[in-house]
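User: Fold this one for me? It's Sister chromatid cohesion protein DCC1.
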Amino acid sequence: MPEPGTLFFPDDYTPDTFKLIEIPPSVEDQIEECQQSGFTINFSIRGSREEEAVFCTPNETYQLKEVLTSNSLFVVTPQPDKPVALMHGAITDGTVPYQIVDKLNSVVELIQIPPKLSKLSQLLCTTLYQGPSIDSEVTAKQTLYRWEDLQALVQASDEEIRCGLKEINAICIEGYWRMIDPRYLSVVLELILSLIHAEELNLEALEPTRFTKELVDAEIPEFIVTHCLINFSNPNSDDTLSLDKKKVSRFIGECLLEERKDQKWPEAIFMDTWQKKVETFPVDLNLLQGLYYTEVAVNRERYITYFPSSSLPLDPAARFRQLFLLKPKWEAHEILPFISDLALGKKRDALLLKYTRTVTNGGVTSYTSRQRLM
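Assistant: Here's what I get for Sister chromatid cohesion protein DCC1.
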């Protein structure tokens, strides 16, 4: 049995000093694993004054949701040496005074959410690496970001930020993270593919040094060649690389769409042009999910238009409004890539229920706006 005690508020009591966080099982498991292995684990709260703060583990991001409780919880510390004269009320022999540090009327719940990675592109797009000849001009006029800057500004865990940087083909140059201009990266990739075809190299066992020697003569820095190879390949156990055909196809397909971003592509012509660009590599519109939307003309011909999900607002209401202003009806497989970064699982289903109406015709599920858009 705990010792009986008396609670008291100190004269300098300051409320709202503490927050009680209820951790989910996944976070609890991480803590226990680290305790058993003797390692430490770091958690962080991330977000600017204009953003809702998020809780980050090393590899996951959580929304912080404050829930009011019906009973108050006291945070106390024992004060065995506290003079009796300072206590309020009588104290019986043997009791221990406990100083109230804080009174809690709520609990903070952690709800896992997708990382908010769109800010990476927003931060890095002003300093695109376009080659060594003009790089000093680019960096002299704009803000550059180190790793710790991205940690402070991007609402995502460290692992998710690293994955996001890889997704946008970012590279660390002299301690600063930079995106590579897609046009410049396209030139480098085409030179690599040309060398592969010219020398009939094995796509499953590429040696990076073979390319750096050749492309340096084309005034492509060695670190850019190496970065391009690594980003578009998967590592083998013998230090060679296996070219990722799908990632190469996706990048080239996106470049084609972006070249005519203000125009509609007839789908058949786009697919034919894309296939000629990548030759024997696979082409499938599923590789470009979240980068385009489709329309069907009166003559039933299908058109596709460049429309990256990263350009959409993060606010769900604004996101759905913009989607339905663009296109009044979306099939399920069309709209999901454009809302996947808003929520996970049932939370995403709840957003669809809140902002859309479901229409089923011939076994095909489509969504229309629940709100009037006029």
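One thing worth pointing out: Residues 117-179 form one domain.
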